[in-house]
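[job 0412] stage=complex_fold ligand=iron/sulfur cluster status=START
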Amino acid sequence: MAFDPKGVPFVLTAPDTESTEQEFSPWKQMVYASVPARFAPRFMYKDKFDQPRYPDGSAKVIPYGVRVVEEILLNHYSRDDVVVCYPDDLDKFVGPKTVAVGVGAHNPIGTAFSTGVYSNIFGSTARPINAAESERIYLHPAIQRHRPKVIVGGAGAWQIAKTGSTTRLGVSCVINGRAEGMALELFQKAEAGEELPKFVQAPEPGIEQLVIPKKRSTYGVIEMNRGCGRQCAFCSPTLETRISVSPEQLAEAVRSNTSNGGRIIFPVSEDIFMYGAAAPFYIPNADKILSLYESIANVPGVDYLPLSHATIAPAVVNPHLMKEMSKILLPKSALRNRFSTHSDKRFLAPLIGIETGSPRLAALTMSGKSLPFDIHDWQEIVVEGIRILNENNWFPVCTFIVGLAEETEDDLRQTLDLLHRLKKYKILYVPSIFTPLEDTRMSGAKALKAKALTQLQWEFVMTAWKQSRDFGEMSDRSRVYFRWGTKVFYHARGRWVHGKQFKWPAMRFAGDPEEELSKHLYLNWDKDSDAKIQKPRLIPKHRKMKLEDLARINDNQPFNIYGTSRDTEADKSNPLKVLSATTTAANGQAGAAAATTATTASGSVNGAASKELDQPVAGD
Ligand code: SF4
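[job 0412] stage=complex_fold status=DONE, emitting structure tokens
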């Protein structure tokens, strides 16, 4: 179709950095959210943004949230009135007739967790590429010339309001939260010429407002479930109602992508193991998870099927589920690493929030993350969970947060101890510095700035980066570049920006001998860790029960699956089907491992006296 050359009334767009499907690896986008724009001139990466267009010039690949708004508008306006385009095409679609431009924003200013430490390591004014690309939209000549209303939504829209950037960027309205229930009203107000509120807190949409886009989204994102409820204090999705999207709706979303040329489907979630699972114990619903992934993998045209966010405890709850998922997902992974035992060296990389190695700090800030296990056994859950994942060629991307409110030096030392215990495992670490996010219980807490990091905090960050670097494929030549690049950076800039506390941690990253470093740092990285993995205990309230019994209690809980209530046909006699099948059939190592994890452990971990903790259980 041909759009009016005088402009389309409603134009939707998003930064190129958020639309690109570069190498079918969603984690590539993290690079754009981290690398400072001033160290990477645009010509170096611009070609990566070359995305397909429909014959009318509209965008074929755009973030999921923008597609949702497009669908909402198309339910009320004609196809001539709504277009989705790339920023470089704005001058084709924005004209005197344009009423409003909607912009999807994931990290428009560069103040998200991930960018805090990565771009700011170069200095506090280092704006990441993602933020520079966002600004190209707001300051685009077509928008400046015709002055339509600019409505911004998406996970990072709050950054614009919080940093006082609305006027500078010419933004008319910032929507905070999911826009399904608000978007139409705001675009209609713009059409009526009414003044828009500068900031709107969108109410949580109900299940009936769930919108399934009919076109392709970046990375084939489809929303498999939303909400969480594990109650981490620094997290906002936890406050949303838990919903698992029905298999029928997900099948429709998959078709929307494959019929428009998409080769990748990325089912996103706050925790994939929550799909079809119930509070209060978050025991994964193995059947629902396996049948969902299998049904997607079997759709013709789906070449890649990556994993989204996950929690670590489910790996310990049901190791066999990881094995079964690997059979479905490894052949559909775009990621390869020399450490993988898969015939094609493929691996899976879910993003898992570990956040801290201190059980004390974990109990204060994220006690629900360990369910159904006791948060006091956090280190054991993490080490055993990672062991199980690695065994199945899952090499997770693990986030850690330094600078959480209440963090002490002792907490940091325990986090470094955990890092040391994980030394032999395959993990990509993403350490970040604490940033209070809107709509979280910690929104009022103080943000940590990179230049305020202590030596211990730097030691954690630089050691984690060193581990990630060692895990990635790296030639001897690259190692030499990293070594000398780090030293040059430290002497030319790092020591002035971050102070002397940056020196020894930076030298560990550079690869100096541990013999020398251990005189100045907490860890001697070369020393072997002799801490054995202990069985994590179930939560204090149900300590005397077995995991199977908890699963049975779990099964009888009312909860939101497909937005209604639990499948009443669930087989209550066999609540941990996949796990039980292995235990009976294998009668060997896998079965023993399953049986071990299914048995309630007794005694305290690492000899630590464990205070009975009032660990919140969803639904309590
Ligand atoms: S586990 Fe914690 S951080 Fe992750 S989504 Fe749930 S509440 Fe948020």
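The first strand starts at residue 10 and ends at 13.
[job 0412] exit 0
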